[in-house]
Design brief:
Layout: H1 3-6, E1 10-16, E2 23-30, E3 39-42, H2 53-56, E4 65-68, H3 89-101, E5 107-112, H4 114-125, E6 130-136, H5 143-149, H6 154-158, H7 162-168, E7 173-174, H8 177-184, H9 195-205, E8 206-209, E9 212-215, H10 219-227, H11 233-239, E10 243-249, E11 265-270, H12 277-280, H13 282-293
Parallel strand pairs: 3-4, 3-5, 5-6, 6-10, 10-11
Antiparallel strand pairs: 1-2, 2-4, 7-9, 8-9
Length: 294
């Protein structure tokens, strides 16, 4: 493999200034910096771009990839506002700012979970900047659920969701990375993860503080992303004119878009894969990313 493909991604920042508050979005830049960006990849809730290093780096011999840390995650320094937050329009608008900052031709856009949903909504607003989409088990509830979540008082009910409550109780401080690794290995959402990918998550998933190592995605913010569902990805699916491929988890999928056989809107199921299949079935996700961007 080319030495460039084996080299670590470069770190860069992109300024963001929108109604949700300004600052800098941290981005990992994989591949040849002399070529235009081919692919933008957005991560899932609670994680960060470095979590997907083992997925993306093998592609960097053929592609240039930008992988941002979303607001409230990793090394991105953008303010988070919990009060009155109802949906993911902040993540959408941050990705729009990133797309506007990319020089060169339109890019392929891919994302996992919240990253896929937010990327879809950003592409619907900037179709001239996105050539095609790959969504890895994006969070797209049934249409009736989306309508219900947009009702004025439903946001209060979302706070009572057991997943939201459990996330708020998530441990946020560790004495060492080794302690965190041992605590996560084989448990909960991390079940079935390769050790390398789990260690990569912790690279930018923890930061040093006077009290110890702290999660860069605060439990309250991660919980807010679970609770804030008053956005409409179905509208974005209708509006985006380009090709879309969706890979749904074989078990426990959070995507209600029905499977289709072919055409510009392909929806397929990853057999044996759960919602976090990009971690446990990285070869499937990697092949789809390569097909998307070449």
């Amino acid at each position: 493999m080319d030495a460039l493909a084996l080299s670590a991604p470069r770190r860069l920042t992109v300024p963001v200034d929108n109604r949700w508050g300004g600052g800098e979005m941290a981005v990992l830049d994989f591949g040849d910096p002399k070529r235009p960006v081919d692919l933008v990849f957005a991560h899932a809730n609670g994680f960060n771009a470095w979590t997907y290093r083992a997925l993306l780096q093998p592609l960097s011999g053929a592609l240039r990839i930008w992988a941002p840390d979303l607001r409230g995650h990793g090394r991105t320094r953008l303010p988070v506002r919990l009060e009155g937050r109802r949906g993911w329009r902040d993540h959408r608008d941050d990705l729009i700012a990133l797309l506007d900052a990319v020089d060169g031709p339109p890019v392929a856009l891919a994302g996992h979970s919240i990253g896929g949903t937010s990327g879809l909504m950003a592409a619907a607003e900037r179709p001239e900047r996105v050539s095609r989409l790959l969504l890895l088990d994006p969070v797209i509830w049934r249409r009736e659920m989306v309508l219900m979540m947009n009702l004025p008082l439903v946001g209060r009910l979302a706070e009572r969701n057991p997943i939201v409550a459990g996330t708020r109780r998530r441990r946020a401080l560790f004495d060492s990375r080794e302690q965190a690794l041992a605590g996560y290995r084989g448990r909960g959402a991390f079940k079935g993860w390769p050790d390398m990918m789990l260690a990569d998550y912790l690279v930018d998933g923890l930061r040093e503080t006077d009290q110890g190592l702290e999660l860069t995605c605060a439990p309250d913010w991660e919980a807010s992303n679970y609770a804030a569902q008053a956005h409409n990805p179905w509208r974005a699916l209708r509006r985006y004119p380009g090709a879309i491929r969706i890979l749904k988890a074989g078990t426990g999928s959070l995507c209600a878009v029905p499977v289709t056989a072919a055409g510009a809107r392909r929806v397929e199921t990853v057999a044996g894969g759960g919602h976090l299949f990009p971690m446990t079935h990285a070869d499937v996700a990697r092949d789809a990313l390569l097909e998307l961007a070449v």
